[in-house]
Amino acid sequence: MERAFQRVVLVGKYRDPSVLPGLRRLRALLAELGVATIIECQSAAQLESDMELPQGAFDALSPDGDLIIALGGDGTILGTARQAAGSGVPILGVNQGRLGFLADISIHDIEKTLPPILAGHYQRDARSVLQAQLWRAGQCLQSGIAINEVLVHKGCCETMIELQVHIDGQFIYTQRADGLIVATPTGSTAYALSAGGPIVSPQLPAMVLVPICPHTLNARPLTIADQVSVQIDLIAGRQPAALSLDSHDTFPLQPGDTIRIHRSTCDAVFIHPEDEDFYQILRRKLHWAALPGED
């Protein structure tokens, strides 16, 4: 069989031994198909795997012939995507989590779904990535990327925070709230959706600003083009807060801090089965086709 991918890198949910049976199942299938297979270094170390596979790091992968298969839930896929972003190496998410909008293949169907993908029958899906910078007193203290969202929130404080928002230098509003989510289309089905934001097709070049429990009845989510720059200022004299990227990297904020957000020059690349589509995933995950009273 002619293959689109010559080597597969396995990634499992860190510190979760429940993924080991699924990883062994993948290893056995890939061996049967004659595909060279390695396991990502951190996965091997943290899972203490006995799979006896060669180990490899993300920075040693090539977009020409390599495929990452990440087994877990959306958190595992996001963590993998952050590390692989910009490399051009595609990621196939295999679901062993709960809801899962990115991991759209079940481990229970892998023997049926994986061989056509390895043969080149798949969809390539490039997703936008956000770049966020934390500025304090004229210095950039932190910089990082987010696949889902950049979140400015009240952290452990009991009181709301006060934010001032500019888009491309133009003043938009001052907001008292528990926080503000700046989400990609990918992140529109994550925290932003729970906070009342819209679902945005991943094909749209957009960002969504979603206030969290705003102290006003006229605050609404705002969808903007992703070519703009968003600036969030934590107003001086108020409580400290925190900046979170995909709920993974978190940095403490002080009054007077500025967060600058724009679309990154790199994308996160995913692949899906040929017959998969975004709206099919929504119907399945959100039970849009179910009648009232049905599961």
From TrEMBL:
The protein's required cofactors: a divalent metal cation
Alphabetical keyword list: ATP-binding, Cytoplasm, Kinase, NAD, NADP, Nucleotide-binding, Transferase
Signal sequence, renumbered to the chain: none
CC annotations in GO: cytoplasm
UniProt-listed GO biological process terms: NAD+ metabolic process; NADP+ biosynthetic process
EC code(s) of this entry: 2.7.1.23
A single GO molecular function term of this UniProt record: ATP binding
Subcellular localization(s) per the UniProt record: Cytoplasm
Binding sites annotated in the UniProt record for NAD(+): D74, G75, N148, E149, R176, D178, T189, A190, Y191, A192, L193, S194
HAMAP family, alphabetized: NAD_kinase
Name of the molecule in the record: NAD kinase
Chain's gene name: nadK
